[in-house]
Amino acid sequence: MFPEYRDLITKLKGHDAHFTRLFDKHNELDQAIKNMESRLVAATEVEIETKKKEKLLLKDQLYAHLKKVEASAP
């Protein structure tokens, strides 16, 4: 996710609690979706789609945070 921000992501994960929380939640949702799609966890299509929308919202928030931090960097 966001390979152009790899270094900034690494930096933020160690020093920005809000970013870390969003990042971890995104990864948790990603794994949950994979488990649902591979039938390791029972879920309806609606539940899977809901999780995907939540994950996309988190991704948008992560990107906005990265852009904000990048813009404020000297």
How are the secondary structure elements laid out?
Elements: H1 6-15, H2 17-37, H3 45-72
Description of the molecule:
By secondary structure, the protein is mainly α. It contains three helices and no strands.
Give structural attributes.
elongated; mainly alpha; 74 residues; 0% strand
Compute the separation of the termini in Å.
Answer: 24 Å
Major sheet, described briefly?
A: none
Count of spatially separate domains: 1
> What low-confidence regions span 5 or more consecutive residues with pLDDT below 50?
none
Cα-based radius of gyration, to the nearest Å: 14 Å
Order of helices and strands: HHH
Anisotropy-based shape: elongated
Q: Which secondary-structure class do the elements indicate?
A: mainly alpha
Mean pLDDT: 96
According to DSSP, the number of beta strands is 0
Number of helices: 3
Please indicate the percent range of residues in DSSP E strands (runs of 2 or more): under 5%
Helix content: over 70%
